[in-house]
Amino acid sequence: MLKIPPVFRHEVVTKYRNEEHPTGQSTCTTAGSVTNCQQIMKTVSIPYTEVETVDIRKPQRSPQIESCAARACSAKFGNSACET
Question: pTM of whole model > 0.70?
Answer without folding.
Answer: no
